[in-house]
Amino acid sequence: MAVEFKNFPLEGKLKGISDRQLQEHRDVLYKGYVSQYNSISEALKKADSSKANPHFSEWGELKRRETWAHNGALLHQMYFENLAENGTTKPGDKVRKLIERDFGSLDAFKKELLDAGKVAPVGWAVWAYSVLDKKTHVFLLEQHMNHTPIGVIPLLILDVFEHAYFLDYATKRGDYLNAFWEFINWNAVEQRAAMVP
Ligand SMILES: [Fe+2]
Question: Of these four, 87, 110, 141, 153, which has the most CB atoms within 10 Å of its CB?
Answer without folding.
Answer: 141
